[in-house]
Design brief:
Blueprint (H helix, E strand, L loop, with lengths): L1 H23 L2 E5 L2 H19 L3 E5 L2 H10 L8 E5 H9 L28 E12 L24 E4 L4 H10 L11 H6 L4 E5 L2 H10 L4 E5 H9 L5 E2 L8 E9 L6 H12 L1 H11 L2 E2 L20 H6 L6 H20 L2
């Protein structure tokens, strides 16, 4: 009897150890590096770990590099939760890499803007826009109030824009010519006419900010949050809410990987990230817009481009491209842009 009790006790102890080991196994989150990862770690992961006891680890890298890794690991994902852009999320979905979400397991999703529910598999965590930002001190006498002002010949050799994803300026050029991201060819000739005004291209946030700081490119098609960070550093930068066409909205999303064995924990992590209090911290740190409509926005960011705090602002103050069109057409856009705009 005692032996049976002893063996039973050992079995219980072993089961407890296995249970604890499983509970303490890290949740792995795929994210961009730098300030993006640091913010998610500090604002989302650490409170999540404090509450659940489950540590969080990060796999960091570029948007498409992480997608490539996920494709290789299909069926046995190396990560549990992925942060990516809304349109690249569609590429994950087309490859069967995201699992369908049960919103009942994400109570915070009830407070999301409709635009933040990008699909049944990925939800928006924050927003921003690519818009015109410029240094008035370096282009004296020129006021930029709309996208069309970028074609002003006085801005010759003054403008920088991203080359890793030219979808923003391609879409705007098409919109100004009566088209959109679907019939984007309508804007090709207009965009070619912008070429003399372009001084540089950038592929990272850091390079964009350096070009603005040094004055090498004092006018940019710029990520709004980068401009706000420069303003916080004391640089005189004006972020434009264009009067002809809105800024191009970006929504960074969270999703659960298909095949993960930690789906329940992943749901808890995403619910934490989308909660009101955490959203407010994300906004204050990253200078982005909340997707939770109950989250308060700091006074200095209210009404600024890329910061959507109400249902009306989401509808009226930004242009959201169709995710699937953008994802599928981006390779063709990059090829055309490199050949016709980047090439000397």
């Amino acid at each position: 009897m005692r032996r049976r009790t002893f063996v039973s006790g050992l079995a219980s102890l072993a089961a407890l150890r296995v249970s604890r080991a499983h509970a303490n196994e890290a949740l792995v989150v795929s994210s961009w590096g730098g300030n993006w990862k640091d913010t998610v770690d500090r604002v989302v992961a650490k409170p999540f770990t404090a509450k659940t006891g489950i540590p969080v680890e990060f796999e960091v890298g570029g948007t498409l590099d992480r997608l490539a890794k996920a494709r290789v690991a299909k069926g046995a994902p190396l990560v549990d939760v992925t942060l990516t852009t809304s349109h690249v999320g569609r590429l994950y979905m087309s490859d069967g890499l995201f699992q369908k979400l049960d919103l009942a397991k994400i109570p915070s999703s009830a407070d999301l803007a409709r635009e933040a529910i990008r699909s049944d598999a990925h939800l928006g965590a924050w927003s921003y826009v690519y818009t015109v930002a410029y240094r008035p001190d370096l282009v004296p006498g020129i006021e930029i109030a709309k996208w069309a002002d970028l074609w002003d010949p006085r801005l010759k050799g003054k403008i920088a824009m991203p080359d890793f994803d030219p979808s923003h300026i391609i879409a705007i050029s098409a919109l100004l010519e009566g088209g959109n991201e679907v019939n984007w060819q309508k804007g090709q000739e207009r965009l070619k006419r912008l070429k003399p005004n372009i001084a540089a291209f950038f592929s990272t946030d850091a390079r964009s900010q350096d070009l603005m700081k040094t004055g090498e490119a004092p006018v940019q098609v710029m990520l709004s949050s980068n401009a706000y960070h420069l303003i916080d550093q004391g640089l005189s930068v004006k972020v434009v809410q264009p009067t002809d066409k809105p800024g191009i909205v970006g929504i960074d999303c969270m999703a659960i990987m298909a095949g993960t064995k930690k789906a329940d924990v992943a749901y808890q992590f995403i619910n934490t990230a989308l909660g009101k209090d955490v959203q407010e911290q994300i906004v204050a740190t990253l200078k982005v817009g909340p997707t939770n409509l109950k989250a308060a926005v700091p006074a200095k960011l209210k009404g600024q481009p890329g910061i959507f705090a109400t249902v009306a602002e989401w509808k009226e103050r930004g242009y959201i491209m169709d995710d699937e069109t953008r994802a599928k057409t981006l390779p063709a856009w990059k090829e055309w842009f490199n050949a016709n705009i980047v090439a000397k």
